[in-house]
Specification:
This protein has 333 residues and is of the alpha+beta class. It has helices at 26-44, 74-87, 101-111, 121-127, 130-140, 188-191, 243-258, 295-301, 306-314; strands spanning 3-8, 50-56, 67-71, 90-94, 148-149, 164-168, 178-180, 196-200, 205-214, 218-220, 224-228, 234-239, 264-273, 283-288, 328-331. The protein contains 9 helices and 15 strands. Strands 9, 10, 11, 12, 13, 14 and 15 form a 7-stranded antiparallel sheet that branches. Strands 3-2-1-4 form a 4-stranded parallel sheet, with helices on both faces.
Length: 333
């Protein structure tokens, strides 16, 4: 019986390693629990597959299928992670990018000799640093938003009179994202920060497009409209999008992923599609080297079991996404 170790940091005790972090709560816990429960359910639905997860001791036992190993501190988390990564046939890492959380655990898995169902460290190292990702995309000719380091004030002097967005270079989701009517209105704590980036604010439809990689190639999954609150908090999405938007999303995603190291498993690209139908104002802006919350909508919109698709990708077996004949509107509660 093949065993799959699914590690989702927020629910697995990973916050023990973040100094001063409280017990899991809020939007990160909701999104983490949502991703964990659905992906575990999908793997458990595959014949002869056994699933293993870690659980933060401060959380109640999970109702999702799969064996649970309890973690009570940072040392216990690392030990349990390495034990499962070594003993299980496959490992999937789902973690925020900040503080090297995703990268370090991917390196743990590789050091343990794990067969990953999530991107490897070469992909994660670039994708989890927005500054490095911007530079790689710009060199490859990928359409992405002009990005500058806040600490290099001279480089973004032209943004002092226009709406801007600032974000940590290693941020996850909307955490730490700040929007201002102009660059001259930035808070002092951001101006003093070495890790913040600044971009001109761009307008259009926010979309995400997920990708399943199989090392040498990848499959693009149907894009979805992102539902965002005023503070950029993600709270769900809608599928399908129009054929025009889908075509533009696929074009941009294909270029953005081709510019990255090859990978196996699941990744997600966030983008803004501007008002010009020719795509000249479309921009990729965030690459998530892991399972994303859009998985919750995709699993409702596709007839395929995406967990099985990832196992097939790891085995070099291709798949074709097959959609249902209805609209899907999903919420992250």
């Amino acid at each position: 019986m093949p065993t799959v170790f699914i590690y989702e940091l927020i629910t697995a005790g990973g916050l023990f390693a973040v100094e001063g972090s409280p017990a899991p709560s809020g939007s990160l816990l909701r999104e983490g629990m949502g991703m964990l429960s659905t992906i575990v359910e999908d793997f458990a639905a595959i014949d002869d597959v056994d699933v293993v997860v870690l659980r933060d001791a401060r959380l109640e036992p999970f109702s999702c299928p799969g064996r649970q190993s309890v973690v009570a501190d940072a040392e216990g988390e690392r030990e349990a992670f390495l034990q499962q990564a070594k003993s299980c046939d496959f490992t999937m890492v789902i973690a925020p990018e900040f503080d090297r959380l995703m990268l370090d655990r991917t390196l743990w898995a590789e050091d343990a000799g794990a067969t990953l169902l999530s991107p490897g460290s070469r992909f994660v190292e670039i994708a989890s640093c927005k500054w490095r990702c911007f530079q790689r995309w710009r060199e490859a000719g990928v359409s992405t938003i002009d990005t500058f380091q806040v600490a290099d004030a001279a480089s973004w002097h032209h943004l002092r009179g226009v709406p801007v967005v600032c974000k940590p270079s290693d941020g996850a989701g909307s955490d730490g994202v700040v929007s201002r009517i102009s660059g001259r209105h930035l808070p002092d704590e951001i101006l003093r920060s070495e890790k913040y980036l600044i971009q001109p604010k761009v307008f259009g439809d926010p979309l995400s497009c997920s990708i399943v990689g199989n090392g040498d190639d990848f499959v693009l999954l149907p894009p979805s409209i992102q539902k965002l609150k005023k503070d950029f908090k993600y709270h769900g999405g809608r599928l399908p999008v129009s054929l025009e938007l889908a075509g533009r999303a696929y074009h941009l995603t294909r270029k953005a992923i081709t510019a990255m190291p090859s990978f196996t498993g699941y990744a997600g690209l966030d983008m803004i599609l501007g008002p010009c139908p020719d795509g000249s104002e479309d921009f990729a802006f965030d690459l998530n080297p892991r399972l994303t919350s859009s998985y919750l909508g995709l699993r409702q919109y596709l007839r395929n079991n995406l967990a099985k698709a990832m196992l097939d990708a790891a085995a070099g077996i291709s798949f074709e996404p097959v959609t249902v004949d209805r609209d899907v509107d999903f919420e992250i509660l």
